[in-house]
Structure formats: C-alpha cells, structure tokens
Amino acid sequence: MDWGNVTAEDLIDALREVDWSSPPRPLSEFFSRFTVPRSSVKWESRFKCNLYYYRTNYFILIVLVVGLGFLRRPVSILAAILTALSFAFLNDSFAGTFSEKVIRTVRQFSPHLAAKMRPPLTPVIRGRPSTKRIVHICGRPRWVFVAIFSSVSFILWYVSCGLLTVIWTLAVALLAVLLHASFRTPNLKARLNTFREEFRAVWRNYSEL
Known about the structure:
There is one protein chain. A hairpin with a 2-residue loop joins strand 3 (136-137) and strand 4. This protein has a domain at 76-121 and 134-165. The chain has ten helices and four strands; from the N terminus they run αααααααββββααα. It has a two-stranded antiparallel sheet with strand order 1-2. Helix 3 crosses helix 9, helix 4 (55-69) runs antiparallel to helix 9 (163-183) and helix 5 runs antiparallel to helix 8. The chain has helices spanning 8-17, 27-30, 40-53, 55-69, 74-88, 92-107, 111-116, 142-160, 163-183, 188-207, and strands spanning 124-125, 128-129, 136-137, 140-141. Helices cover 67% and strands 4% of the residues. By secondary structure, the chain is mainly alpha-helical. It is a multi-pass membrane protein. Pfam families: PRA1. It is found in: Endomembrane system; Membrane. Keywords: Membrane, Transmembrane, Transmembrane helix, Transport.
C-alpha cells in the first residue's frame, strides 16, 4: 500500500473497523530501528503505516501514561477508564466483542434477559441484507452507551478537578506516539500486515455481494 495516498479520513475509518483485540507488538520490535525520514512525503507515509501497525502498542502507551498521572486521583482514574471506553465503543470490532462478552456473562444468570440483549436482525431489502448496519451494544444502539459513558466521565472529571492533569498527560502520551511513529522505520512485517488487511477487506466486500 502507498500510505502517501491514504487520507486521514481513510485512516480513521480503518482504525474504527479494524480488530483491536490483537496482542501488542513485542518490545524488541517496537524499539528496534529508528531513522530520520528523508522527506515530508516519506514521513507522512511512515507515520500512517506505524500508526496503523502499532495501534495496540500506542493505545497501551497512552493508557499507561495517563494512569501514571492519576495515581493519587482514584476518581480521575475511573473517569479516564470511562473516557477510554467511550472512544473504544466507536470501534466496530471492540463494540461487538464487548457486547458478546457481556451477553455471554448475563446468560449464565438469566438466559431470558440475555435474549433481550441480543441485537436486532439486519433488515433485508430485495433479498439482500441492508448495507446501513447500525452497531448495537447489549441490544441498544452504540450511541446510547457512548453518550452515557461520556456524560458520566465528564461529571467525574469535573468533580475530581483532573482536567489539567489529563491535558498534560495526554500531551506527553501523544508526543511519545508522534515521535515513535515518525522515526520508527517500518519493517517488512508491517508491510506484509498491510497487504493482509487489504486482502481481508477485499474478500469481505466480495463475500457481501
């Protein structure tokens, strides 16, 4: 893939739809080789490639930095967790996995309640499933959970007075991600992983026809 032709909107859509349950890359690979990009075009391509390939590592890095900043503020830690979940719910794979695990747990205690938490069936138009698929979490539209978690986290941020802390911790974490994604040389495994994701996307679109 020529990452220089990938727009920011395409990258965001890919990060929203990709599977985030994959384990992080090993530290030996994460801190393997760093070089200065030769041009702004090379830097842009490298940054997008690394951001996609090391997405799980960057997410863990941000969580760790923010968590270290809130060691003395337990309420802020809860607010940070709810905020992270609010953003995580925007990812289709995470939302579906989270919903399935909750339903599976509830089924052990109340099968009737678990049946009500199942997502509605996808409408069929002219013999084909509708392409306008709405992601559900525990039987409710995704935006309901995003709104609830965001509202509660905002209240907790306000009560704990931790907004300044989250601003500087996020700034440090994002700066670390920016530096790593800019100077980490993409390896062959990253390029092969990109081709594999492209093949899966093409095959998924073909199977929906």
